[in-house]
UniProtKB/TrEMBL annotation:
The keyword Oxidoreductase applies. It holds the Pfam family Fe-ADH. Its EC number is 1.1.1.1. Residues 9-175 form the Alcohol dehydrogenase iron-type/glycerol dehydrogenase GldA domain. This is Iron-containing alcohol dehydrogenase. It is an enzyme of class 1 (oxidoreductase).
């Protein structure tokens, strides 16, 4: 196992009817900006619950943060934060609203001229404006981590940011919010969380027995609850386990002391930036090709995953590893998620070359757990995913 340090300061408030606890978490003298997305919270009652809980708090609102939070929209919110002397941010939404809020948390205290530099120059945020979240969509783990991904439409970019100053102070996780989530987004959430675990697990053995079993147990739980959540999102047992699995998949715990990959996400983000494909679906497009292309380097963990998660007991290490990739693809298909780029766009020619060029331009010349995935290899993987 590798050496590691672990600190996660986010307070989780989990369970039925916990949104009413909001009031206890926000400082009494705060001037709050409540941030939300396209309006789902106004239809499903979450907005009303939040407003009731904030009855005694000085709060103004900013709605309209789109899926894949857009820089231009966030810059409008940043102006509001400055004009209104906001001191506390509250995200009510999924990964997009929470990530947008993290950008604002960083940008509000940023002293440079151009907040985009936080993303393009990879500036770590040591201290941000304090914020909390009410999670409405289990998927990203953003509610308990310090990362964010921001999109910029005019340059077709999607870049990551983060730093120890960007953990939410608290996150409220009420599994009842799942009841109103459309099937497409439920499938996305399951796929995103599943792939988060794979990115931190599908590398090479390093003797981290507990981390491996944490990871496998999250995968097993997601597989078990997936059909139940899709069939009946009001099934509280399934919803609770789905929600907590998504948070645990990317709150930093399972990646401690182990190598991590994240190349699937790096390539996937480009597919969202270029074609607007839902984040989770880009991962389902890239992951199978990535694992096939890097088969030799990853086959021991692929086989372990096959044995322990999919109960593949027959054959050699290679056989099990290959079967595990096939099982993964079948799982995505069962969720209704397509796994080829051509399923999403007819305009895919040249995509692999474009992504390889972008990575070269950014100096991303060695991704993955061995820092050996060159842009040439990225090009091949993306082509395999057409
Ligand atoms: O905008 P509203 O109206 O709220 O509707 C949203 C949106 O259309 C809807 N929704 C959310 N909760 C709902 C609901 N509809 C009905 N009932 C509810 N309770 O769902 C749609 C998608 O929401 P979004 O927040 O975009 O989804 P998700 O949580 O999957 O977030 C995706 C974003 O997070 C980033 C992705 O790249 C993408 O931009 N990620 C963030 C990560 C992180 N910070 O750690 C890691 C991930 O790998 C990912 O990159
Ligand atoms: Zn993801």
């Amino acid at each position: 196992m590798n050496n590691f340090e672990f600190k996660n300061p986010t307070k989780i408030i989990f369970g039925k009817n916990t949104i009413e606890k909001l009031e206890n978490e926000i400082p009494k003298d705060a001037k709050v900006l409540l941030l939300y997305g396209g309006g789902s919270i106004k239809k499903n009652g979450i907005y009303d619950q939040v407003k009731t809980a904030l009855a005694n708090v000085d709060v103004i609102e900013f709605g309209g943060i789109p899926a894949n939070p857009e820089y231009a929209v966030l810059m409008e919110a940043l102006k509001l934060i400055k004009d209104e002397n906001i001191t506390y941010l509250l995200a009510v939404g999924g990964g997009s609203v929470i990530d947008g809020t993290k950008f604002l948390s960083a940008a509000a205290l940023y002293e440079g001229d151009t907040p985009w530099d936080i993303l393009s120059k990879n500036i770590r945020t040591e201290k941000g404006m304090p914020f909390g979240t009410v999670l409405t969509l289990p998927a990203t783990g953003s509610e308990m981590n310090s990362g964010a991904v921001i999109t910029r439409a005019d340059t077709k970019e999607k870049l990551a940011m983060g730093g120890p100053g960007l953990f939410p102070e608290f996150s409220i996780l009420d599994p009842q919010v799942i009841a109103s989530i459309p099937q497409r987004q439920l499938a996305n959430g399951l796929t995103d969380a599943f792939t988060h675990v794979l990115e931190q697990y599908m590398t090479y053995p390093i003797g981290a027995l507990l981390q491996d079993r944490f990871a496998e147990s999250i995968l097993q739980t997601l597989i078990e609850v997936a059909p139940k959540v899709l069939k009946d999102p009001t099934d509280h047992k399934a919803a609770s386990n789905f929600m907590w699995s998504c948070t645990m998949a990317l709150n930093g715990l399972i990646q401690k002391g182990v190598p991590t990959d994240w190349a699937v996400h790096a390539m996937g983000h480009e597919l969202t930036a270029l074609f607007g494909i839902d984040h989770a679906r880009t991962l389902a497009v890239i992951a199978p090709s990535h694992y096939k292309f890097n088969f030799e380097a990853k086959k021991e963990k692929l086989a372990q995953y096959g044995e322990r998660v999919w109960n593949i007991t027959e054959g050699s290490t290679d056989d099990k590893a290959y079967a595990a990739i096939e099982k993964t693809v079948a799982f995505f298909h069962d969720l209704g998620i397509d796994t080829k780029l051509s399923d999403y766009t007819k305009d895919y020619e040249g995509t692999a070359e474009e992504i390889a060029k972008r990575f070269t331009d950014r100096g991303w010349t060695g991704l993955g757990e061995h820092q050996s995935l060159s842009p040439e290899k990225v090009e091949k993987i993306v082509k395999m995913a057409y």
